[in-house]
Design goal:
The protein has 849 residues and is an alpha/beta fold. The chain contains 26 helices and 34 strands. The chain starts with a strand and ends in a 6-residue tail after the last strand. It binds zinc ion (2 copies).
Length: 849
C-alpha cells in the first residue's frame, strides 16, 4: 500500500457568512485524472482514525469486478480490514503495492458521484473518510448472522432413544420443533450434535422485513348507478337498515370494513350479500400509524392550493425544470401548508425523472410523512432512520443505489442516500438543532445538504416556520431565494399568547409554587370544558439559571455576553466560552438589590405539583427519563391522543409535529431556562421553542391559548414570539450577533479535550491553548483574525468519569480557520500521545456542554 496525498484543505468560499457557495475547482471531482483503460489499482478508504486514503493493486482475477462504491477486504499492517473503493486508478507506483484480498459486494453501495461529497464532509468536519463512509452506510450492511439447526434422519432416531428428561433430548426436540430458529446458546452442544450427524448447523441472515400494515376496505364497483340500486332493489328485502347501508357506501367512496361493521351490526351479512350481487368489491389498502396511535388513511384528493402555495410552487417548479443548483428558504408559519408544497415539489421532480430526499428532524415525523407519501409511491419510496431493523435498512439502501427509489424520507442520516439521479433535497424544520450530529462525524446535515446540492446540481429547499438566523441571513443577502407563506390555511387564527411576569407573581405570592395564578385559572377553565393541556418545561438535565428575583437579569460574561454557569461546589459563576470566573454574590449587578438566586427545577417537580392541584385528573410526563423504556413515549402519546390524559407535562419532545386537536391550552412554565442557557443561540432557541409550542395549541376547530411564565417579560425573543413577529426578532438577533462576532458573522470551532485524570486534562488543555497562541504568533497578519477563547472547563465538567475542557476558536474566514484546525489536529496527535487525554474537533459547534 501507499499513502495518497489527498487534498485535505476543503473548499470554501471566502466571504464571511456562509459556505454553500462553493468555488469548486474541477479537479475536485476527479481527485486525480485517470486513464480509463488502466484499472489496475484502487484508492481505498479504510475505517481507521487516519485522514489519508491508501492505494492497492487489484489482482487480475478481480480486475473486471472492481468498481467505485464496492467494499473490499485489504491487508493493513498485519490485519485485514474492510475498506471502500473511492477511486479507480492507474499504477505508477514503483512496486511495493499490496493487493486487495477480496471484493465483498456484488453491486456498488454508492455511485462515484457521491465520493466528492463524502470527501467534502470528511475534510470540512476533520473526520477520517473511511470512518465517515462507514457511518453513512446502513448498519445492516453487515447483516448479522445466526446459527440454526435442522434435524437429520439419524438425529430423529437418536432422539427416540434418548432418555426423556435428558438435556440432549430436550435440545433435539426443540430443534425438531423450531426449524430455522436461532439455536439457543451456548452452541457447543449443537456442534457436538453436528459431529454425531444428528443435525446440520446452518448460518442464516437476520433479515427481518417490516411489512406494511394493510386494512380491508369495501367500495361500490365502478359503473354501478346509485339510482338503479337505491331506487329499486334496496328496501325490497325487508332489512330495515339496508337502504342506509348502501347510501353510506355510495356517499363514502371506500370505507374500512371495521368502521362499516361498527356502524351496522349486520354489516358482515350485508357486505357479503352485495359483493355476491356484484355491486360491492373489497380491497386491501396500505395504512400507517402515527405515534399517537391514530391510523392514517391515504390522504384525500389534494385540497385546492391557496394563492400563496401556488406562487411558491411555481417558483419551485421552474427551478426544478432548470435542473441547476439553487437554494430556496421556504418561510411558512405553522399551519400554512408547507407539507402540501413539499408533496407537489417531489411529484414534480419525479415527473422530471429525478429523485428526492426529504429530511425531517424526528423519527415521529418520518412516520407521519411516510403516511402521506406511501399510498402514492408504494415501493418506490424508502424511509430511513435509526428506528428501523438492520435488514430493512440494508434492503432499502441497495434499492436506492440501484435507482429503484424515487423518494427517501429520513432523519439527518438520509443525507447520504445513494440516489443516482438526485434532483431535490428538502430539509424540513431546517432550524432544528437535531440536524447537527453530536458524535462520530459531527456534520450539520442542513448545511451539508446545500453542499451536496451544489455538487450534484440539485434544488435544495430549506423549510421552516421559524428559520435559523443563519439561513435567514443567507436569504436576506440573496444567497438563498426567500419564499414566504405568511398565512395559515383556511385563515385559522394563530393562538393567543399571554405572558406572565413571574417577578410580580413572586412579590404577591410568597409561596414557592411553579404554577402562577393566571395559569392555574386557565387550566381550571380548560379542564372544566373537557379540553386537554400541555405544560412545557425546557430543562436540559442539570441546568439551573442564576438570576435576580427583582429584575429578572442573569449575570453575563463581560467578554462573551454569555450567561454564566453556576458551579454549586465552588460557589462560583463561570463562563464556559472564555473561562472567566467570579464568586457568587447575593447582590444583583443590574439592579443592586439582594435578589440573586439559582432557579431551576425539573419536569418531575412540575408533575408532582399538578398532581397535587388536580388529584382527580390524569397527569402524565414525557421526557427522556420517563421514556427510557422502549415504546413508552408512543404509549403516552397514544393515551393522550385518545384523551385518556388531561395534562401532559413534557420537555422538547412534545413540541414537534404532533397533532392533538383537543389541546387548547399550552403553558410554558419557565421561559428563562432556555433564555439563560449558556449558548449564543439561546435567544434564537427560545423564539423557536415558544413559536413551536404555541403551534401545538388550537390545531382543531377551537382556538388555542398559550401562557408563558417568565422573569424576563420584556426580552425581545419573548416579545417577538408573543406577536408572532419573526422579522423583528431576526433584526434584533442579527444586530447582536454582528456586534459580538458570533455566527453567521464568524465561524466557530470547539476543541473538546477530555481525560480520566483531572490534573492531566487541565494541564493538556492549558498546553494546547499555549501552543495555539504560538502558532498564531507565527502568522502575524492572519493571526489577528483569529480569536481563541479559553481553555475553559466545560459546563458539564465531569461526564461519565471524564474531566472535560474546551477551547473555542472564532474566525471571520472559514478557510483560515481550517488551516489552523488542520495544524492543531496534527499538533494534538504529538502532544496528547500517551497523555490519557483525547481531543475532538467540533466544527460549527451547536452544543458546548
Ligand atoms: Zn436585579
Ligand atoms: Zn466569557
Amino acid at each position: 500500500m501507499a499513502k495518497t496525498h489527498c487534498s485535505i484543505i476543503p473548499v470554501f468560499q471566502h466571504s464571511n457568512c456562509e459556505r454553500s457557495e462553493l468555488s469548486l475547482p474541477s479537479s475536485y471531482f476527479e481527485v486525480c485524472p485517470l486513464k480509463e483503460k488502466d484499472k489496475s489499482c484502487l484508492k481505498v478508504a479504510v475505517p481507521l482514525s487516519l485522514r489519508e486514503t491508501f492505494t492497492y493493486r487489484v489482482p487480475e482475477h478481480l480486475a473486471h469486478k472492481a468498481e467505485v462504491g464496492l467494499r473490499v477486504q485489504v491487508p493493513f499492517r498485519n490485519q485485514k480490514l474492510t475498506g471502500y473503493i473511492i477511486e479507480k486508478g492507474s499504477d505508477d507506483h514503483e512496486g511495493g503495492l499490496k493487493e486487495i484480498l477480496e471484493i465483498l459486494d456484488e453491486k456498488p453501495l454508492f455511485h462515484k458521484s457521491l465520493v466528492p461529497f463524502f470527501q467534502w464532509v470528511a475534510d470540512y468536519y476533520l473526520y477520517p473518510l473511511g470512518r465517515l463512509i462507514q457511518a453513512a452506510l446502513p448498519g445492516g450492511i453487515n447483516v448479522s448472522h445466526f446459527k440454526t439447526g435442522y434435524l437429520t434422519e439419524k438425529g430423529l432416531k437418536a432422539s427416540e432413544l434418548l432418555p426423556p428428561d435428558s438435556e440432549e433430548k430436550r435440545l433435539l426436540t426443540w430443534i425438531r420443533e423450531n426449524p430455522g430458529k436461532r439455536l439457543p446458546s451456548p452452541l457447543s452442544q449443537a456442534y457436538t450434535f453436528q459431529k454425531r450427524g444428528w443435525i446440520n448447523v446452518e448460518s442464516k441472515a437476520n433479515n427481518r422485513r417490516v411489512r406494511p400494515l394493510k386494512r380491508k376496505y369495501v367500495r361500490v364497483k365502478e359503473g354501478i348507478e346509485r339510482e338503479a340500486i337505491l331506487g329499486k332493489e334496496a328496501g325490497s328485502s325487508g332489512i330495515k337498515n339496508e337502504f342506509e347501508f348502501l347510501e353510506t357506501l355510495f356517499d363514502a367512496g371506500s370505507i374500512p370494513l371495521k368502521s362499516l361493521f361498527s356502524a351496522f351490526s349486520n354489516g358482515p351479512y350485508l357486505v357479503k350479500k352485495w359483493i355476491k350481487k356484484g355491486v360491492l368489491e373489497s380491497l386491501d389498502v396500505v395504512v400507517f400509524r402515527n405515534p399517537s396511535g391514530k391510523i392514517m388513511f391515504p390522504p384525500m384528493p389534494p385540497p385546492e392550493l391557496s394563492q400563496q402555495q401556488k406562487t411558491v410552487l411555481s417558483v419551485i417548479q421552474t427551478r426544478l425544470e432548470e435542473g441547476e443548483f439553487s437554494t430556496c428558504l421556504l418561510h411558512g408559519v405553522t399551519g400554512s401548508g408547507k407539507t402540501e408544497v413539499y408533496q407537489r415539489a417531489i411529484e414534480h421532480a419525479n415527473r422530471l425523472g429525478r429523485q428526492a430526499i426529504l429530511m425531517v428532524p424526528e423519527i415521529a415525523l418520518v412516520v407521519y410523512m411516510e403516511g402521506i407519501f406511501r399510498s402514492r409511491l408504494g415501493n418506490r419510496m424508502a424511509v430511513f432512520h435509526s428506528g428501523l431493523g438492520q435488514g430493512e435498512r440494508y434492503d432499502q439502501w441497495i434499492q436506492m443505489a440501484k435507482g429503484e427509489i424515487d423518494l427517501v424520507i429520513g432523519a439527518r442520516s438520509a443525507l447520504f442516500s445513494p440516489l443516482p439521479k438526485l434532483g431535490l433535497i428538502i430539509v424540513d424544520e431546517e432550524h432544528d438543532i437535531s440536524y447537527k450530529q453530536e458524535e462520530g462525524p459531527r456534520y450539520q446535515a442542513r448545511d451539508a445538504a446545500v453542499v451536496r446540492g451544489k455538487m450534484e446540481n440539485v434544488l435544495v429547499i430549506l423549510g421552516s416556520g421559524t428559520p435559523s438566523i443563519q439561513s435567514f441571513q443567507n436569504a436576506s443577502t440573496g444567497r438563498y431565494q426567500l419564499l414566504s407563506m405568511p398565512e395559515r390555511v383556511e385563515s385559522r387564527p394563530l393562538p393567543e399568547m399571554q405572558v406572565v411576569d413571574m417577578k410580580e407573581v413572586r412579590e404577591k405570592n410568597k409561596k414557592n409554587g411553579v404554577i402562577s395564578p393566571t395559569l392555574k385559572e386557565a387550566l381550571d377553565r380548560n379542564l372544566a370544558e373537557g379540553k386537554q393541556a400541555i405544560m412545557f418545561l425546557n430543562r436540559r438535565g442539570y441546568h439551573r439559571v442564576y438570576l435576580c428575583r427583582f429584575c429578572g437579569q442573569s449575570v453575563r460574561c463581560a467578554n462573551c455576553d454569555m450567561s454564566l454557569i453556576h458551579h454549586l461546589k465552588k460557589n462560583q459563576l463561570a463562563c464556559h466560552y472564555c473561562g472567566f470566573q467570579i464568586p457568587c454574590k447575593n447582590t444583583c449587578p443590574t439592579c443592586g438589590r439582594q435578589g440573586m438566586r439559582a432557579y431551576g427545577f425539573g419536569t418531575e417537580r412540575l408533575e408532582k405539583e399538578l398532581n397535587e392541584l388536580y388529584p382527580e385528573r390524569q397527569v402524565a410526563r414525557l421526557d427522556k427519563d420517563s421514556t427510557r423504556r422502549k415504546g413508552h413515549a408512543f404509549k403516552i402519546l397514544k393515551k393522550f391522543g385518545r384523551q385518556e390524559i388531561d395534562i401532559l407535562v413534557g420537555t422538547q419532545m412534545i413540541t414537534k409535529g404532533y397533532d392533538f386537536p383537543n389541546v387548547t391550552l399550552v403553558g410554558v412554565i419557565a421561559a428563562d431556562l432556555s433564555l439563560g442557557f449558556p449558548d449564543f443561540r439561546a435567544g434564537e432557541r427560545t423564539f423557536q421553542i415558544l413559536s413551536q409550542v404555541a403551534g401545538r395549541a388550537g390545531r382543531g376547530d377551537q382556538s388555542g391559548t398559550v401562557i408563558v411564565q417568565t422573569f424576563n417579560p420584556e426580552h425581545y425573543a419573548i416579545n417577538a414570539a408573543e406577536t408572532h413577529d419573526f422579522q423583528t426578532f431576526f433584526e434584533k438577533e442579527k444586530a447582536l450577533r454582528e456586534q459580538l462576532g458570533y455566527p453567521p458573522f464568524s465561524y466557530l470551532a470547539c476543541l473538546k479535550l477530555q481525560g480520566n485524570n483531572s490534573k492531566a486534562a487541565a494541564a493538556m488543555a492549558q498546553r494546547m491553548g499555549r501552543e495555539i497562541s504560538e502558532i498564531l504568533k507565527k502568522w502575524p497578519k492572519k493571526g489577528k483574525d483569529i480569536q481563541v477563547l479559553g481553555p475553559a472547563e466545560a459546563p458539564l465538567s465531569k461526564l461519565k468519569g471524564k474531566y472535560r475542557w474546551q477551547i473555542l476558536i472564532k474566525c471571520g474566514k472559514a478557510m483560515l480557520l481550517h488551516y489552523l484546525l488542520e495544524e492543531v489536529q496534527g499538533l494534538s496527535k504529538k502532544i496528547l500521545r500517551s497523555s490519557g487525554v483525547s481531543m475532538i474537533v467540533d466544527v460549527d459547534p451547536y452544543q458546548m456542554l
